[in-house]
Amino acid sequence: MINLFMGDIEVFFIENNDIQLEAEYYESTSDKSSAILICHPHPQFLGI
Amino acid sequence: MYNNVVSAVFNTFMNSNISSLRFNFRAVGRSTGTHSSGRGELSDVKGCIDYLISNKKVEKVFICGYSYGAAIGCSTVNHSEKVIGYASISFPWDFIGPKYKKLSQTNKPKIFLQGDQDNVANFNNFQSHYDFYEEPKEFKIINGADHFYGGYERQAAEEVFKFFQTII
């Protein structure tokens, strides 16, 4: 897995059941115990 | 990776110094695999939850999903006790079928955002869908917003952040 950083954002792939998911992660500099996981719309769903 | 609503939420949380993960579903952008009509996409979200817990040592995961991402993302709310709740933005109940409505049922805190001009996640049916869910729950109607939230994405993101602050 190659991790790149764009400013404070880590760009990488999450491995899950032989699938690689493109991901971007910002890690808090204070409280690392909580996080939000944001799910995109799907481009094949209603053309979004 | 770009969507106006997702980016508004991501940037709002990042600017408040909250750890934030966004990802592309399988077969989208540079993600591998093929679209699997929901089944594999549920696995994608669960994989991201597991990644946060195992690799980033996150103790509390808050899910936010928009449109298809709401249906899939919120349906993983019971995957782990470390998922503390969710924010659903324009859940497309009428299009995506009853499966995801049942899977997203939970006694964890949740908020539903809905545009009053939305005819995809149809505003006229919102209340009946909302009534299905157990407490604790909230809703917020974004006046003037359709399904795509042009010009309203920041307002939606701020509502998600305000709710997050109440449950964290």
Provide keyphrases for this structure.
heterodimer; A: 48 residues; mainly beta; 4 strands; 52% strand; extended; B: 168 residues; alpha/beta; four-stranded parallel beta sheet; 7 helices; 5 strands; 18% strand
Written overview of the protein:
The complex is a heterodimer of chains A (48) and B (168). Chain A has a domain at 1-28. Chain A is extended and about 35 Å long. In chain A, 0% of the residues lie in helices and 52% in strands. A 3-stranded antiparallel sheet of chain A has the order 1-2-3, with no helix packed on it. By secondary structure, chain A is mainly beta. Chain A has strands at 4-6, 9-16, 19-26, 34-39. The termini of chain A are far apart. With 168 residues, chain B is α/β, with parallel strands linked by helices. Chain B has a single domain (4-167), classed as Rossmann fold, CATH 3.40.50.1820. In chain B, 40% of the residues lie in helices and 18% in strands. In chain B, α6 (126-132) links the parallel β4 and β5. The two termini of chain B are 27 Å apart. Chains A and B meet through β2, β3 and β4 of A and α1, β1, α2, β2 and α3 of B. β3 of chain A pairs antiparallel with β1 of chain B, so a sheet runs across the interface.
Q: State the end-to-end CA separation of chain A.
A: 29 Å
Strand content of chain B: 15-25%
Can you summarize the main beta sheet of chain A? 3 strands, antiparallel
Number of strands of chain A: 4
Largest interface: A-B, 37 and 62 residues
Proportion of residues in helical segments of chain A: under 10%
Q: Which segments of chain A are poorly predicted (pLDDT under 50) over 5 or more consecutive residues?
A: none
What is the third-level CATH name, the topology of chain B? Answer: Rossmann fold
What is the overall pLDDT average of chain A? Answer: 86
Strand order of the largest sheet of chain A: 1-2-3
The ordered string of helix (H) and strand (E) elements of chain B is: HEHEHEHHEHEH
Class derived from helix and strand content of chain B: alpha/beta
What is the tally of helical segments of chain A? 0
What's the overall average pLDDT of chain B, rounded? Answer: 96
Low-confidence stretches of chain B: none
As for the number of domains of chain B, it is 1
The level 1 CATH classification of chain B is: Alpha Beta
Global Rg of chain B? 15 Å
Secondary-structure element string of chain A: EEEE
Q: Gap between N and C termini of chain B, in Å? A: 27 Å
The order of strands across the largest sheet of chain B is 2-3-4-5
